[in-house]
Write a structure and sequence with these properties.
Strand order of the largest sheet: 3-4-2-5-7-1-10
Distance between the termini: 32 Å
Largest sheet: 7 strands, parallel
Number of helices: 18
Number of domains: 3
CATH architecture of the largest domain: 3-Layer(aba) Sandwich
Helix content: 40-55%
Structural class: alpha/beta
Shape: globular
CATH topology of the largest domain: Rossmann fold
Strand content: 15-25%
Oligomer: single chain
CATH class of the largest domain: Alpha Beta
């Protein structure tokens, strides 16, 4: 095993990192745009720094960071943890709060420029003379692919930036933790809905694209020694009889509407869904445009069903009064328990954790996060909360990590973005989403350990969790152990 230390940089390089950097240099010399798939916690930021500082030391580089948190942390690590650059002018970053004249100066003079995509695009569009870069590094490149929609395959502003980068001759490097999902889009030329792998979509926009895959790294390098296994379990919860009945009625209505939407769409365009396997029709139903209002009703039912599994009853019950025609009566709604059985389950699990343990609970909605925080605090445990409304996430996170006793961190799906908690022993997922990649990334927030996915027993949610875990086991076999 090789652990060479980079000259003048306080970073111990691992063998797999050397292998990736060597392959990137080779592809750069041969003119192949490249995506490096490096799983969560294995040093994408370190690789980016070494690539810029050593491999591309005489090249002009644009580094696009997908979020403000990623932007702030990267600037911190580059300057404080990794040793920085030769001079302040060598590496410059600008944010939305940077003055316009200073953005222009940075774009004109800095060797390495870092920004978020939107901030860069805003500055870029105002310039008469466009800046040219030898290299463009895109952090989390998988996020630039549209999950579903029209024939535009890339999200804004990448749908405009990528053609410019390619045309200007820049070498494009994408860093990602996972590049294994597919997405749904409308193909105008064929007049059909298609499901396409995100790599294929990127390859259509970025020619001569090569991918360094985790599979080959696991087989050919020492990367397996640094991967922390994540043990994932489905944890079924018995719903109240009233909620179970409501979920079954909504699920039945959703299936009926789905059939009507597909039949109507096929009547309008018999070949629209020719390339969609029958097992995938449920994925595309919500984006089919029909002359009736069925699609809108369908999307509304999906949302209400999500509320029923992820919100508290006092929040979602008001939506149920609209569903009388589906058999959901006023008496049934009023009989719903005020206390959610998932809440009880979380409290039981938290209470069983040992002294000095760290537990993280992920949920989708703010009202559930608030309820969990209140209930856990009543048990006498130190509780912290991070949501999209919290500005100073890092301070709260550090307090949670450093507390020398049992602590629980409650986070919403918006609040948890770009946050990693390797100190946690247990991750409880209150509710799941359908996107496999999103759930895998959430499971990896704790860098190993145990993950429990809560779901209501004998409902659609249990089936959904089973499908997700099966897909995760198939796509990410190197670190996911499904129990």
């Amino acid at each position: 095993m090789s652990h060479d230390k980079s000259p003048d940089i306080g970073i111990q390089q691992r063998q797999y990192q050397q292998r990736i950097l060597m392959k990137l240099k080779e592809n750069y010399q041969n003119g192949y745009h490249t995506i490096a798939e490096v799983d969560t916690g294995l040093g994408k930021r370190v690789l980016t720094f070494l690539l810029i500082k050593e491999t591309l030391s005489d090249q002009r580089v644009l580094l696009l960071l997908h979020s403000t948190i990623s932007f702030s942390e990267t600037i911190h690590y580059f300057s404080k943890e990794y040793g920085g650059f030769e001079s302040d002018s060598d590496f410059q970053a600008f944010s939305s709060r940077t003055a316009g004249w200073l953005r222009k100066k940075i774009l004109d003079n800095a060797r390495v420029v870092a920004a978020t995509p939107q901030t860069f695009a805003n500055a870029f569009n105002r310039l008469t003379t466009k800046p040219r870069f030898d290299v463009v590094i895109i952090n989390e490149i998988d996020k630039i692919v549209r999950r579903h929609g029209d024939s535009r395959l890339l999200i804004f502003p990448y749908n405009n930036l990528i053609p410019y980068f390619v045309h200007s001759g820049a070498w494009i490097v994408g860093m990602t933790g996972t590049i294994r999902d597919s997405h749904i889009f409308y193909n105008q030329l064929k007049d059909q809905i298609e499901i396409q792998h995100e790599i294929v979509s990127l390859d259509r926009r970025i020619p001569d694209l090569h991918v360094i895959r985790m599979d080959s790294l696991v087989a050919q390098t020492d990367i397996g020694e640094y991967i922390q296994d994540t043990y994932i379990q489905r944890y079924s919860v018995i719903a109240s009889p009233e909620l179970k009945t409501i979920l079954d009625l909504i699920d039945h209505a959703i299936k009926n509407l789905r059939r009507e939407i597909i039949d109507e769409a096929m009547e309008q365009n018999p070949t629209l869904l020719d390339s969609i396997p029958s097992s995938q029709l449920a994925l595309v139903s919500g984006m089919l445009e029909t002359e009736s209002e069925n699609t809108q009703k369908y999307q509304g039912l999906l949302l209400i069903r999500k509320y029923c599994t992820a919100m508290q009853s006092k929040k979602f019950r008001k939506f149920l009064f609209r569903l009388k025609k589906f058999g959901i009566t006023k008496d049934l709604i009023n009989a719903l328990p005020k206390r959610n059985t998932k809440i009880n389950t979380v409290l039981e699990l938290v209470g069983k954790q040992p002294t000095n343990s760290k537990t993280v609970v992920l949920c989708s909605f703010l009202d559930t996060a608030q309820k969990l925080e209140e209930e856990i605090q009543e048990l006498g445990f130190s509780t912290f909360k991070i949501t999209g409304q919290v500005r100073d996430k890092i301070t709260i996170l550090n307090k949670f990590k450093e507390l020398p006793k049992k602590a629980i961190l409650v986070m919403t799906s918006v609040g948890e973005r770009d946050i990693d908690i390797p100190q946690a022993n247990l991750l409880i997922v209150y509710d799941v989403v359908n996107t496999v990649k999103t759930m895998y990334q959430r499971f990896k927030r704790t860098r190993g350990g145990l993950v429990l996915c809560l779901c209501y027993e004998e409902t659609f949610e249990e089936q959904k969790v089973n499908r997700l875990l099966q897909e995760i086991s198939h796509r990410y076999p190197w670190s996911s152990i499904i129990e």
